[in-house]
Design a protein that fits this description.
alpha/beta; 10 helices; 8-stranded mixed β-sheet; 2 domains; APP1_cat; 6-stranded parallel β-sheet; disordered C terminus; Rossmann fold; 371 residues; Mg2+_PAP; Immunoglobulin-like
């Protein structure tokens, strides 16, 4: 038995014992609805079922008490695996079960929802039903924005383990700082491409989803679905591969939205230049441009131990798409204004149905068909 097999077995055993003990203490399953996404043909409904102490139920997401909690509380969870769930999307009802780690990922076809933000219902045995949001992208949408989170819009200094642990586990969740100028940069990008959906693609853990949503709203970053990951062991290793997660999710976006060309935004503190460069090489017709935030030498040292970037990307556009670089959002915006991305042929600046939803800042009620 390999080390990862041993760790996964130990994790399952610990979680099973913890679930039994918490059930005996009166804890019950509770659903967290993540932000899903889809087209007018099909939609991904995402969520998770964890055990919850009824005494903590009053600490609802968005309250001062919830937002100021120390980050480690987000990671001390007991998941409810192989649990019956029901997803209601419009008139469609789909029965499913959570996976081993309590996650819900249900694909619903022929849902009948209109473009924009909508609400769906997730039910689970023994839990209160919750409403989850899903972004439906209109069929005439031709351009979208994919953004990394850590060190792209939020100062994190990942993946260096101790700093990542300090930022995610120890610091209060409402003390994290935005990367200067990124909200302004995204605001202009979306003003030039109204209707573009925004998708946040990160190696961050799903446990931080509610904190990240609050962060986006607080700092006027655009609202959009998040594609995060689970930090647990896999059949081949102790931790999931961050680069592989991003590559798979990018590929899924290309498949789900065959008519959309994407603007990719990331930073050079991790592997974004390499991942985005590979995407351009493999799918040059699906990438409208790339923007990379360049960390300072000091930030690189804190991030991965050396003063230079771990990966770079050709800034001369020789890969066939425009590439802009900058130390923060202000520099990226300045360079973008000097080298604007072209409006794509057939791009309908007034259509897409998600212009107000994904293109607006988080917290604004601009949805086309919410509820």
């Amino acid at each position: 038995m390999g080390l990862s097999d041993f760790v996964r077995k130990a994790e399952r055993t610990i979680n099973k014992v913890g679930r039994e003990r918490k059930t005996a203490k009166g804890w019950r399953p509770a659903i967290t609805g993540f932000s899903g996404y889809g087209s007018v043909d099909r939609v991904h409904v995402l969520g998770r079922v964890l055990m919850q102490d009824p005494d903590d139920a009053a600490d609802t997401p968005g309250t001062l008490q919830e937002e100021a909690q120390r980050g480690w509380r987000q990671f001390i969870t007991t998941q409810v695996g192989d649990h019956p769930v029901t997803v209601r999307v419009g008139d469609r009802v789909v029965e499913s079960r959570t996976n081993d780690n309590g996650y819900i990922d249900v694909l619903v076809a022929d849902h009948g929802l209109l473009p924009g933000w909508n609400e769906v219902t997730i039910e689970a045995e023994g839990a209160d039903a919750v409403q989850a949001r899903v972004l439906i992208v209109g069929p005439s949408t031709r351009i979208g924005l994919v953004s990394d989170i850590d060190d792209t819009v939020m100062v994190t200094w990942l993946p260096r383990a101790m700093l990542a642990a300090w930022n995610s586990w120890v610091r209060h969740t409402n003390t994290r700082k935005p990367v200067p100028g990124m909200a302004e940069f995204y605001r202009e990008l979306l003003r030039n491409h109204p209707g573009a959906p925004v998708v946040y693609l990160s190696t961050g853990a799903w446990n931080t989803f509610e904190t990240l949503e609050a962060f986006m709203a607080t700092h006027s970053l655009p609202d959009g679905p998040m594609l995060l990951t689970d930090w647990g062991p896999t059949p081949t290793g102790l931790f999931r591969s961050g680069p592989e997660h991003k590559k798979v999710q990018l590929r899924n976006l290309f498949i789900d939205f065959p008519d959309i060309t994407w603007i990719l935004v990331g930073d050079d503190g991790q592997h974004d230049p390499l991942i985005y460069g590979d995407a351009v090489f493999e799918h040059p017709d699906r990438i409208a441009g790339v923007a990379i935030r360049q960390l300072s030498p000091g930030e690189h040292v804190l991030s991965h131990g050396t003063a230079t970037a771990r990966a770079t990307i050709d800034p001369e556009g020789r890969m066939g798409v425009p590439v802009i670089l900058g130390a923060d959002g202000h520099e990226l915006l300045e360079n973008y204004r000097e080298n604007p991305l072209p409006v794509l042929e057939g791009e309908d600046e007034g259509a897409g149905g998600a212009a107000g939803a994904a293109g607006g800042v988080a917290g604004e009620d601009t949805s086309a068909n919410e509820g």
